[in-house]
Amino acid sequence: MNKRTRQLSSLLVIWGACASLPAWADAIQRGQAIAQQGNGQGAIACLSCHGPQGEGNAAGGFPRLAGLPAGYLSHQLRSYRDGTRQNPMMQPFALALTDEDIQAVSAYYASLEGEDVNLPTSYQAAAPENTAEWLAERGDWENTIPACNQCHGPNGQGVGDTFPPLAGQHASYLAAQLNAWRNGTRSNDPNGLMQGIAERLSEEQIGLITAYYATLPEQLSANAAAGQEETP
Amino acid sequence: MRKLPKSFRLAMGIMLANVTLSASAQDPQTERDYQVPLPPAPSGDAVFQPPLESAIPDNQYGDMVRKGRDLFVDTQQLRGTHVFNEQNCSNCHLDAGRMANSAPMWAAFGMYPAYRGKNDKVNTLAERIQGCFTYSMNGIPPETGSESLVALETYFHWLATGAPVNQAMPGRGYAKLETPQGGYDPERGAQVYAEQCAVCHGSDGAGQKVGDRQVFPPLWGDGAYNWGAGMHRVNTAAAFIKANMPLGKPYSLSDEDAWDVAAFINSHERPQDPRRRGMESLEATDRTFHQHSGYYGDDVGGQRLGDHDNYGANPGSGD
Q1: Is the pTM here over 0.80, yes or no?
Q2: Where is region (Disordered) located (chain B) (predicted)?
């Protein structure tokens, strides 16, 4: 089962609990309408910042939403409402969304193609000289920092609804989140797992690791293409 | 398969008595009794530093070190031949076997050969590793001298560069955690599990996968360590959990919580103890091999744990 079908099936589980398949399709459609036009109740169109395909915007620090798990996205929107994720731009929009709206836009963005689709899951030894790769795959245990991929999955492609994909996410956004955990403006992680890690990361590590994940999908496909050329 | 000598049961009893004695009587001046299992690690800070991986030499020895490191982190490459569950060595020996108080390999290496009560004989390092395959990996051990075993031994040898031989080092094993005064309780542990562990290991204890890759290891069920593994003992799991879990938050649980949650996890079903194959009954297996803090053979929730012939995916040609 690849990542795509897994995400779709987890969506099905979510919607299967309360609704039928057509209702799920309706939710995506409804979510698309909100994403493109706003909900008419104070939440403006998501695409104005997050882009027409939910690709986000690196310069603005707006995250990619396409392909993120619906459960993760709706938790974030609820966190903006309850203040465990403080963000002056997002909070009013999240407060203007109904519970149903939140489910709908989350389902819609989860249904879009993400950057982390079909990344390899097989083990690859990390190169000690590549500091970012080492941190991603082996961690920095002298400073009690587990490898990022120990929770975020192989090549940072995300695990379940709780551990979001990092691969293909904008570096500016990832760095902003690590800083938000450090300064306490984000505290919606389970058991403060991420807060402690963010606090122990150095500025240099934050710069390296966010750039690493932002470019990882293209790096991996470049490596795969190079590998194919070598073996005719 | 072997029948156990009568002396073995006696040895088990003596061993249990001695574990507590040796824990209190152990000091560097005391002559070590080699007929009891390894003494607890001395207290104090673990100061030993294994070499950096950038220092692995570029030659055949180095290639074997890397091969061993890869097997240690990705033991699943032996799935279906020597491994029959979802575990990797590095699940319980964090940072690829480098982490103090997470049973680091640099501290284990110099302690073998050593007597083990578990099989009542002197074990070489190779035999000790084979034991991990039989129980923790619910598997069939690679043969002595096989490349897999040589690779693992070479990796441990390299990690132990500069470490003393036949001398217990601080940080070895899992730091012993005293049993709480009020005992431990799996029902309290269920709450700790739900709050602290389920987010990664799942409320069903099956862990989580991405594609074929197991990211968070199963803690019970067919994918977990079997009823013979050291980790199924409540004291061992409590010590591991206290110093290492939740990942990135070591020593954050109280001693009581660590014991309770270890009891909760280990009061669930898992693949049968492979030694059961050679025993007449569950009672005999329990009596002979399970005189320790574990739930094997116990009634939990109206069900007797270990009362089944489910050996997980292990086809059973291991002995």
Answers
A1: yes
A2: 287-319
| Amino acid, single-letter form, for residue B307 | D
Element (H or E) spanning A176, and its range?
Answer: helix A171-183
Choose the closest CB to B74 out of A123, A129, A158: A123
Residue type, A141: W
Report the distance separating Cα B256 and Cα B264, nearest Å: 12
The residue extents of the domains of chain B are 6-45+58-159, 186-304
Is the pLDDT at B23 greater than 90, yes or no?
no
**Minimum CA–CA partner of A158 in chain B:** B210
Alpha carbon A56 to its chain's center: 11
Q: Which CATH class is domain A131-230?
A: mainly alpha
CB contact under 8 A, A1 and B211: yes
ipTM attached to this prediction: 0.90
Structure tokens given for B113: 């050969």
Domain B6-45+58-159 -> CATH class: mainly alpha
Collapsing DSSP states into helix, strand and coil, what is residue B73? Answer: helix
| Residue A111 CA to its chain's centroid (Å) | 13
Query: Is A3-111 CATH 1.10.760.10?
Result: yes
pLDDT at position B105, please?
98
**Rounded to an integer, what distance in angstroms lies between the CA atom of residue B12 and that of residue B119?**
10
Quote the crossing angle between the two packed helices B147-159 and B125-135, to the nearest 10°.
110
Outline which parts of chain A fall under CATH 1.10.760.10: 3-111, 131-230
How many beta carbons lie within 10 A of that of residue B144, not counting itself?
Answer: 13
Q: Map residue A145 onto helix, strand or coil.
A: strand
